[in-house]
## 1
Amino acid sequence: MPTPDDDWRDWFLDNTRSFRRTLLMRRDGARRHAGSTPAGDLDRVRRKMDFLVISGVPERDAQMAMLAAGRFTVGRVLEEQADVGSGDTPDPQADLPVIDHESAFEAGLALILDGLVRRTAMRAV
């Protein structure tokens, strides 16, 4: 959960990374989570949203960024967990770059955050 002293950008990254780690802790964690709703966790979701809005992120952008980051994370973890121990996949083509799961996750997360930072800055002007 965020604290008032947290920088919202750092918190957003840490929160999403924590979600990824949590999904990876359980076999098929992403598959189990996919399609679920935070019914029992609404207070935590509200506190996270309030933190972003108080930090200057427009409410709708905060909602969409949290949704995008969550779905991106579930999708990346689904791919990652499906890849573990799968010996029946063909060898990748030599001309395709090899991107490890961690790098792919971090690159996508950075794109989401960069978009949110830009939108927040545009609304502040």
## 2
Amino acid sequence: MPGVAHRGRGRRTMNEINMVPFIDVMLVLLIIFMVTAPLITPSLIDLPSVGKAAKQPDAVVQVVVNKDERLEFKAGDKTVPTTLKDIAPAILAAQTGKPQGSIAVVISADRNVKYETVVKVMDTLQRNGVQRVGLSVQLAP
């Protein structure tokens, strides 16, 4: 096509972005959020709080989970090594003669013990009728 001459006007490249579609989409999203926001009701979460116990426990029994996942039963001044299957009968024996739920059980575990071990102890106690089970924590300085 040697007969066609260029006059110097070709297609120019666009060096700016068309913002109109972007603004349209953003306005539609804004309207959708403005309409739906009042329709969403915030859900309330009932969180536990400290110090709401109706009655303080008569005695506190402690179950200690050592680093090597051995269990110890502490009642008063005596410490007795025990196993997972023997821990619930030992606690229920300590409750004999006292009203149900008057003894609180506190589980103390080493920081390096698997969480699964602590949950197994809690589950075993609750399945065997121990009502008040708690975890001992150390507050950060």
## 3
Amino acid sequence: MISKRRKVREAVIESIFQLDFNENISYEEIILLLRDLLNKKQVPHNLIEEAEIYIKNILENKKNYDDLIKKYLLNWDFDRIANIEKSILRLAIFELGNRLDIPPKVILDESVELAKKYSNENSAKFINGVLDRLAKEEFKRL
């Protein structure tokens, strides 16, 4: 059984994934998409507001999050990263910096599982490597 928090994470990455295809998409459009996804995933209403906070923060800090991703890439060009991987990394960076109630190992494990679901095993390893370095060096959480 998929946890409620995993469903929230999935809906968030599915929503912010749109940013890389349509830079003109409005905040309101992303929130409507998010709410629709959360309803389809049968997420309890009390977690909808939390998911909206995730979206708002990620939208407002997208450039900063992307700069962090670039900083921790090893021999890899940011433009070569798949859009779904960027979305997963942005979500994880938000959680590492703002959700101190969630252990960093959980954030990394969830990110790896999302990568396996939405991409592949190589993607999962890549995301784990970037987030491991980022969590240790940038957030001092590992």
## 4
Amino acid sequence: MNADLVLAVDCSTTGAKAIVWDAGGARVGEGRAPLELSVPAAGYGEQDPRDWWTATSAAIRGAVATIDVARIAALAVTHQRETFACLDEHGDAIRPAMLWLDSRAGAEVEQYGTPRVHRLTGKPVNPTPGWYKLLWIARHEPWVLEATRHVVDVHAYLVHRLTGLWATSTASADPLGLVDLSTGDWSDELLGAVGLDRRALPALHQPGDRIGALKPAAAGELGLPSGLPIIAGAGDGQCAGLGAGIAEPGRAYLNLGTGLIAGTVNREYEPSSAYRALVGAVPGTFDYELFIGAGTYMVNWFADTILGSSGDGGNSPDGFEQYWEARAARIAPGSDGLVVVPYWNGALTPYWDHHAGGVMVGFAGVHGRAHIYRAILEGIAFELRLCVEEAERHQVEPVAEFVAMGGGSHSPFWCQLIADIVGRTVIIAGQDEATSLGAGILAAAGVGVHPDILTAAAAMTTLGARFEPDEVSARRYDAYYDAYRAVYPALRPVFPLLRGAAA
């Protein structure tokens, strides 16, 4: 039997997942294993890199338990981005890995975050990229860097355990903020600021390239054939876009998760504060990503804070979200003048203002909890429209439609609301495991199951329900959008005062 399946590993913040895909994008095997997150202090986020391998091994064994492994043609990895580990000469961690969500390097961001760094990396100044955390280590734990022989992202760590090679994908390494996007190579300037030699960094490969082969020891542990091709993957955001079928300009992926991430594929690199630029999953492209720190997080906040112990809707047979959506649907677009600016976790694109806070404005006696619920969903959609309009100033092709995934995409009410406010078609991705599927697409193209990445994406992805903008609702929202855009600029001077008063 010909090798006609591919294995995708998704090593995320909370767990590892392994899925076996066929050439048509159907799941034929799946395994999962949890990962622990350590928060030793406020603003910290750490993991033991050994757990990445332990969880990945367990997930792979589960995925292939009922599969003829001789049919598996290749393996590719996708993963949590910006996370990295410092290893010694034996490949052992010198300190716990620092995660993307670790925000301890605020002083380093203030000192070293410059327009020059933004131009080099495409990353607006913020504490997420690993470069700032490496600067923190250089200042607070200099002995760590003295003993460091390898700085690795999650992809590089797993590839070394799989093959024995120190290698990674450009689309995996780039989110660390150490790559010069104009050259696609490590930046000696940025490495020098930390005190690292490029020999401490893994070799870079394009997504979809064959990196190496599964070594015998790892093959035995995983239950896979020795010599299995290991294909360069990409970070979870880029893979999610590819798994939603976004491989060329003109469409955007929309991940309605805890936060909201939207991204487009572009052929040219131009830095801007309107988005975060990344090496794309398709070689020669760049992903422009928009970030809103509010998605289903705000729905949970509504339940915990506005409802509290009353728990209204919690026992509804249709589910909490459907209960409140049914009530919100009775309210006219614009929530009778109540506007929510969803900066509960600060303002990301395009403002990048960590002082900003959330706002509810326009309250009147008519407003109740259903108004608040609807205004929250509308506010997130207004913010997406703002981000998209700012980003399109730097893109050759406008976004005609969004392909949505994530927990929020299961809500037809919210998807239609987004279509009406943003004025673009929203289409549901045909596969709810789009991130893993993106890695599977790269594996399939890299080993010849499909001739190239674009062909693989076309063959392995599908689309679901479509939501077209309603002209009547869209016109009503246009007027409210003008008001929405005015709120944050008017209040921007107030937020630092509030932060200072609370300090």
